[in-house]
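During the no-cost extension, the postdoctoral fellow (Dr. R.K.) reprocessed legacy sequence entries with the updated structure-token encoder. One reprocessed record is reproduced below for audit purposes.
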Amino acid sequence: MIRRRIAILTLSVGSGHVRAAEMIDRALAEGGEDVEIQILDAIGLAHPWFVWAYVQTYWWMLRHAPGFWRRLFERRQRKRHRATAPEWFFRWGCAPVLKRLKQFAPRLVVVTEIGAAEIAALGKREGYFSAPILAVQTDFQTEPPWVQPEIDIYCVASDEAKSQLISWGVSPNRLLLCGIPIDPAFGLPFDRNELLQALGLDPRRPVVLVMGGGMGPMPMDEIVQSLELCGLPLQVVAVAGHDQALRSRLDALRGKLALDIHPFGWSDRIPEFMAAAGLLITKPGGVTSAEALTAGLPMVLTHPIPGPEERHSKYLEGLGVAVRADDSRQIPQLVHSLLGDPDRLKEMGRRGRDIARPDAAHAVAQVGRAMLDRGTYIDLLATAHARPGESAYLM
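Re-encoded structure tokens follow.
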């Protein structure tokens, strides 16, 4: 059997892009043994000076000059800039990435991050590969640099993103509404009582999940401490991810507050944590938000990355699935208000499940396989994403 090669190109400026790539990888692999898939993280392959200039400066701005980053982002949106960096910068800085793509000789290239989309478009334009490109967006809003003539099909997360791309010149026939690729486990019907027992949580006390996302300044330990002001017998599950210093600070809080704190580092049990919790406090990252929607978990959104995540906050609040905390000091009152209104929480959860797309990764995989089977000139039907009971239609 000849195995067809698929490259999934990402750029790990945040954990969500990588998680989406992994879910697409899994969904494509489940379709059969006729494909060979490689996930390529440009950060791990590019020259160190590129990583420093493109990624580290971005992180520095988020932490020390967020207002400056916001102005850059808004200007890019307003002026409709079609690049996050000059073409020469990608050509030289990502030469090892382009070389790897050429050596792998993929039949399809999937991209899950905006910079990765620019790298792939450059690679195709300059002859490193000739395969079609499938762009998979992991945010509910989009940005002009996604618009690259070399991209064949876009899988978007919302009607808003679709409308934005159309306004910037992308043909509607190249757009499919698939949702954000997440682990389908977030949609599983867990037995909550059994789950609480397995996690060592008391079913008589409310559970609040606190997550900080993969990047950006969110003072999780300060937020956890502030929850004592709620005056409720909370159980707080706090996930620090790979931030070991934060995990240590959370561990140090145990026994010092009138809260039952359960700190975790990186964990693959996030679907269980979300199923057990009654409320999530988090940054409004696209993947984390999509996971919470699928779990039917209401959100308190705080400390967004200036620009894109601020728009996410407004979008999710407008859908009635989240509330925004513009300042950490607002969080205790918001948590107290929401946990004291079970009917509102139930309605927020219902709305989240109604708009969730737990099968987004498999929808993207179907689109990818269709592109493999039919090449660039394909007539993609929305059966690639249709929910049960929906008829197929061209997006």
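The longest helix spans residues 48-64. The chain has 17 helices and twelve strands. The remaining legacy entries will be reprocessed before the final report is submitted.
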